Amino acid sequence: MPKIGLIGYSNLECFPASTTHSENIISTVVDLGDSVPMENSCENGFEVIVKQSEPALVPPAEETEKGLYFLSNLDQNIAVIVETVYCFKADDRGNDRAVEVIKEALAKVLVSYYPLAGRLTISSEGKLIVNCTGEGAVFVEADANCSMELIGDITKPDPTTLRKFVYSIPGAKNILEIPPLVAQVTKFKCGGFILGLAMNHCMFDGLGAMEFVNSWGEAARGLPLSIPPAIDRSILKARTPPKIEFPHHEFAEIEDVSNAAKLYKDEMLYKSFCFDPEKLQQLKQMALEDGAVGKCTTFEVLSAFVWRARCKALNLQPDQQTKLLFAVDGRSRLDPPLPKGFFGNGIVLTNSLCSAGELLNKPFSFTVGLVQKAVSMVTDSYIRSAVDYFEATRYRPSLSSTLLITTWSRLSFHITDFGWGEPVQSGPVTLPEKEVILFLSHGKERKSINVLLGLPATAMPVFEELMEI
After folding, report:
1. Catalytic: 414?
2. Which of 229, 300, 311, 378 could cross-link to 356 by cystine, CB 3.0-4.6 Å?
3. In whole angstroms, what is the distance from residue 436 CA to residue 452 CA?
4. Residue-wise pLDDT tens digits, 239-266
5. Which of 158, 201, 248, 388 is catalytic?
6. Which of 34, 91, 256, 417 is catalytic?
7. Which three-class secondary structure string do you get for 129-195?
8. 201 is catalytic
């Protein structure tokens, strides 16, 4: 099966569809071959140099449970490393104090989130599981040779620079050799600092990660956790025997009759497009104008719009099947719903299949309708079926002829406060890869959406023209 490389993630090969043995999982290698090569974008061509200290382990501040910790089948599908950065302004306490506070707070919050202090291993069933050893998260202190303002606007990621603020485990050949949580605090000459995190997605989805980071901030400010983690993931165990009730096309391979994969071997361009409230309203009006759709959300119209534009830009054959793949939060869709503060992945992948000819020749409302059906398809039965499908097949989602959309626009990482106020900027380290798009809230009022993606250089001019609405 092709790998999934989600946005903001240091890409690790996903496991083959036939994986059932631990030796195959252990051979999963770090793959940085698809990372985006970009020149340093700092002002005046200044190169940011970051000097990292020796890494230290931060164990939980108190004794915690030991032993094996279950990961659900929803966790198994996204064992990739998510890299994010949070930029904080200076105050009169200095950034040495910030390092001390953040490190001490990490030890405190790991008491509640103790699996993050463990290490990934392989269960007797050949699945990922956490060995709760309590050895701790990796923590690194670093110093930069400049002021933080030289980093520029991180909503247009420059991986060459931003990766300097996230510590990479030297020589790691697979995800088992990378702790679930790695943190780096980089101090700048202006007194500001950046917290860079590398977290394994199998530990939690975006909402869970947001709750963890914000809980960490509460611990730093001496506050009790407003949303304590609900640790038990057994509520998402597969049924015995597995009961597959849906076709689950998210796992389906699609033949590339348009030979679009060849385009991606040529020069790639990476761009971001900002959709302000006026543009977003315009898209909704386009979707509603023929009466086929009664109402629609921002996500639905933007996903539909980009899906169509990408098909046209790649000049796909009319009979080329194309798949839209995206995650839906299943927390409230399960019966009973997942508990508040659920520590784990509560998202499930849903999809829509259509030929490029239909997408481009039918009204815009048709594509919006396809997205809406994919969203409404996610019910308790569908989620349970997806969990059981993996149990029975060990297949992983395919990205052949697929547009994968992941959205961070509803995640409140921007309110994280360690006592130095909210971050002046926060976001992913890496740009989207060739089949991925990321939506980010943008602007002071966070009412606009940034769409980031990569396309072959020959396709980007057409896509840019279509983005002008």
Report:
1. no
2. 311
3. 8
4. 999 999 999 999 989 999 999 999 988 8
5. 201
6. 417
7. EEEECCCCEEEEEEEECCCHHHHCCCCCCCHHHHHHHCCCCCCCCCHHHCCCEEEEEEECCCCCEEE
8. yes
